[in-house]
Automatic annotation (TrEMBL):
Belongs to the universal ribosomal protein uL1 family. Part of the 50S ribosomal subunit. GO terms for molecular function: rRNA binding; structural constituent of ribosome; tRNA binding. Binds directly to 23S rRNA. The L1 stalk is quite mobile in the ribosome, and is involved in E site tRNA release. One of its GO terms (cellular component) is large ribosomal subunit. The gene is rplA. It comes from Oceanidesulfovibrio marinus. Keywords: Repressor, Ribonucleoprotein, Ribosomal protein, RNA-binding, rRNA-binding, Translation regulation, tRNA-binding. GO terms for biological process: regulation of translation; translation. The keyword Lipoprotein does not apply. Signal peptide: none annotated. Coiled coil: none annotated. SUPFAM superfamilies: Ribosomal protein L1. This is Large ribosomal subunit protein uL1.
């Protein structure tokens, strides 16, 4: 596909084949943004795991210190006193069977979903609707819990769920270009720390093999994996 003039101007002077020191890579990613809207910044990490084996699956969630820079609409599937707890925490849509019926009818005007364990048998009825959209609550990511108020607050604050794909690559958003380099690095540090803590014992060799940063419209900026440890050093 042909690249536009704005794209070519944005990448002028940037060698996208070179692996950059991690702080320099973030700086270049932010500088290369050229759209007339506040672009998102995303990271892709190629992990040294084989996801076809269950003991090498990497999946989790992290609350980014600076959030994602956008409003997150949360649906909470719960009943009784937990409904009041979810509403007080800021959930946008709260219900039990009634909310499930709305989803069956096509309602999907939310970005995240949480549920209490006693609702999961019924939420399972809409698993085929929520699952493909990444909205199905899951205990492994902390979205199936009786602490539903805390879960809602974390999501509204910028909680990011991640899961390695079939190719061993993990994709995650880090925030907006307008955050600036320092806040984006803080968010990246939180993500990398979380992914490192989830390293499977069955994974052999280099865990974080490659990394790339990119804005919504910008080019992919490759990161020298040997410099990733600088994130932990501050």
């Amino acid at each position: 596909m042909a690249k536009g003039k704005k794209f070519k101007k944005a990448v002028d002077g940037i060698d996208t084949t070179v692996r950059h020191e991690i702080f320099e890579a973030m700086k270049l990613a932010v500088q290369s943004a050229y759209a007339n809207f506040d672009e998102s910044v995303d990271v892709a990490i190629n992990l040294g795991v084989d996801p076809k084996y269950s003991d090498q699956m990497v999946r989790g969630a992290v609350t980014l210190p600076h959030g994602l820079g956008k409003e997150v609409r949360v649906a909470a599937f719960c009943k009784g006193d937990k409904q009041a707890e979810a509403k007080e925490a800021g959930a946008d849509f709260v219900g039990d069977e009634d909310l499930i019926e709305q989803v069956k009818g096509g309602f999907l005007d939310f970005d995240k979903a949480v549920a209490t364990p006693d609702m999961m048998a019924k939420v399972g009825q809409i698993g085929r609707i929520l699952g493909p959209r990444g909205l199905m609550p899951n205990a492994k990511t902390g979205t199936v819990t009786f602490e539903i108020g805390n879960a809602v607050k974390e999501m509204k604050a910028g909680r990011v769920e991640f899961k390695v794909d079939k190719a061993g690559v993990l994709h995650a958003p880090l925030g907006k270009v307008s955050f600036g380099q320092e806040k984006l690095i803080d968010n990246l540090r939180a993500l990398v720390d979380s992914v490192n803590r989830l390293k499977p014992s069955a994974a052999k060799g280099t865990y974080m093999k490659t990394m790339a940063l990119a804005t919504t419209m910008g080019p992919g900026i490759k990161v020298d994996p040997l410099t990733i440890r600088k994130l932990s050093e501050g």
